[in-house]
Design a protein that fits this description.
Structural class: mainly alpha
Radius of gyration: 10 Å
Keywords: Cytoplasmic vesicle, Fertilization, Secreted, Signal
Domain Prolamin-like: 1-60
Number of helices: 5
Low-confidence stretches: none
Subcellular location: Cytoplasmic vesicle; Secreted
Distance between the termini: 19 Å
Largest sheet: none
Order of helices and strands: HHHHH
Mean pLDDT: 82
Helix content: over 70%
Family: Belongs to the plant egg cell-secreted peptide family.
Protein name: Prolamin-like domain-containing protein
Amino acid sequence: MTELRSCTSEIILFFLDGESYLTLDCCRAVRVITHSCWPTMLSALGFTAEEADVLRGYCDAES
């Protein structure tokens, strides 16, 4: 969870900028949260289900 908090600004820029990328550490945190812990955790943190799906898809493709 701490790892995800540390990359929240990265995630926000990813959606606002459209050209940003997520670091491997951030993607690792997204994958752990969405696959191993609580799939709805990103929604609980204020991201929409669609945004969570985009993050999951981006990070799964990066691995």
